[in-house]
Design goal:
Blueprint lengths: L1 H19 L4 H11 L6 H12 L4 H26 L3 E2 L2 E2 L1 H5 L1 H19 L3 H23 L5 H26 L4 H28 L2 H4 L5 H4 L5 H4 L4 H21 L6 H15 L3
Antiparallel strand pairs: 1-2
GO biological process, one term: isoprenoid biosynthetic process
Keywords: Isoprene biosynthesis, Magnesium, Metal-binding, Transferase
GO molecular function: metal ion binding; prenyltransferase activity
Length: about 280
């Protein structure tokens, strides 16, 4: 775990440094509250691991990793407003702590800082822009065109969660100056991991303890939100098995990338399995 901890520490330090350079102080405080109040740093870790697996430029990957984490956190601010969720990671959500206007401003600020980190690389900009289009479409689908079948749910999960995971991996490959086939293979890997991650989130919302999870549970059923458990007749165990199937497909995509075995690649394998078995 020392290998992984070192990379996460570097992500955290760079994240703090980027936020420290923002202004005015009120906006910095709000963005720090959103971003530094916890979080698994899953997406940025994927970015760095993919770059490592391809022997790429870790410094460039680190900026991309921080950027994708900022985009992710910006989206969570809006999610909490839509869902009226008062807690995020066991602390007050941005809108609860600061009000709706400042929370939305913080979300905008995070996106702006993120794109400043991507701005010097056209491929990076395109990857992130495409993922944000998918994310926006996913949010809209959830609000106005809710899925009623498992197939429709899968499309929602791909857009709402899988898209940012895909971008995270693609950014790592881009930082390593990988060819388009390799970028696509890692993108497919991460997208499928993201879908599995969302499926497991849905199961945890239905079954986990709110204190352990760090956010309210049961909100999918309460708000009639289209989770896998709510849309289908699957039991939580059956839904978890569907997530395992996505994890298996992710591993197939990882092998298709045809890169040498390494510590980074092994962690990517383990991550695809972990997202299905996690308890929070």
């Amino acid at each position: 775990m020392e290998y992984l901890d070192r990379r996460r520490d570097r992500i955290e330090r760079r994240l703090e440094a980027v936020l420290a350079e923002t202004e005015p102080d009120e906006l910095t405080e709000e963005m720090r509250h959103v971003t530094l109040s916890g979080g698994k740093r899953v997406r940025p870790t994927v970015t760095v691991l993919v770059c490592d697996a391809l022997d790429g430029d870790t410094a460039e990957a680190l900026d991309y990793a921080v950027g994708i984490e900022l985009v992710h956190n910006a989206s969570l601010v809006i999610d909490d407003i839509i869902d009226e969720s008062e807690l995020r990671r066991g602390t007050p959500a941005a809108w609860t702590a600061f009000g709706y206007g400042p929370a939305i401003t913080a979300s905008d600020g995070l996106i702006g800082e993120a794109f400043a980190l991507f701005s010097e690389n056209e491929r990076a900009m395109q990857a992130v822009a495409e993922s944000m289009v998918e994310l926006g479409e996913g949010e809209a689908m959830e609000l106005v065109s809710e899925p009623v079948t498992e197939q429709e749910y899968m499309e929602l999960a791909r857009r709402k969660t899988g898209a940012l995971f895909r971008a995270a991996a693609e950014l790592g490959a881009i930082a390593a100056d990988a060819d388009p086939f390799t970028v696509e293979a890692f993108g497919q890997y991460a997208e499928r991991v993201g879908v599995a991650f969302q499926m497991r989130d849905d199961v945890l919302d239905a079954t986990a303890d709110a204190e352990q999870l760090g956010k309210p549970t049961g909100t999918d059923a309460e708000m009639e939100r289209p989770s896998l458990v709510e849309v289908t007749d699957l039991t939580p165990e059956e839904a978890t098995q569907r997530a395992r199937e996505q994890s298996s497909k992710a591993l197939d995509s990882l092998e298709a990338a045809d890169v040498a075995d390494s510590e980074a690649k092994q962690f990517l394998r383990e991550f695809a399995e972990f997202v299905v078995e996690r308890e929070k």
